[in-house]
Amino acid sequence: YFSSPLCITCWQQKPVIEEFVREQGDQFQFVEYDGDFCADAARPNAIRGVPSFLVNGTVTYGYQDKDALLRLVNA
Fold first, then answer.
1. Looking at beta carbons, which pairs linking 60-68 to residues 24 or more positions away fall under 8 Å?
2. Partners of 59 in the β-ladder
3. How far is CA 53 from each of CA 43, 63, rounded to the nearest angstrom?
4. What is the arithmetic mean of pLDDT over 30-51?
5. What is the pLDDT of residue 35?
6. In the predicted model, what is the mean pLDDT of the chain?
7. How many other CB atoms are found less than 10 A from the CB of residue 53?
């Protein structure tokens, strides 16, 4: 997950992710990167904006509700 402390959508996304991780976290590894300062992680994955999720090599941009996060993890 790539986010930024200056991104309002990222702030809205955070509680959804926290709840999702509490419920489903044993199924995947969750790592959060600050997109403003983690260019070394963002560049090879072609991350162009935040919030964005990198799951199994596929990047998904924008706010994701719990159902969408579940679909990403299970894809």
1. 62/9, 63/9, 63/12, 63/13, 63/16, 64/13, 64/16, 65/16, 66/16, 66/19, 66/20, 66/23
2. 54
3. 14, 10
4. 88
5. 85
6. 92
7. 21
Dihedral pair phi/psi, residue 38, rounded to 5°? -115, 50
Give the pair of three-digit tokens for residue 75. Answer: 């894809």
Which pTM value belongs to this model?
0.86
> For residue 28, is pLDDT > 90?
no
Q: How many CB atoms lie within 10 A of CB 50?
A: 22
Nearest to 31 by CA among 9, 50, 70, 3: 3
Closest CA to 2 of 56, 44, 59, 57: 59
- Whole-angstrom CA distances from 8 to 3, 32, 49 are 10, 16, 13
Q: Is 38 exposed, middle or buried (CB count within 10 Å of its CB: 0-12, 13-18, 19+)? A: middle
Q: How far is CA 47 from the centre of its chain?
A: 11
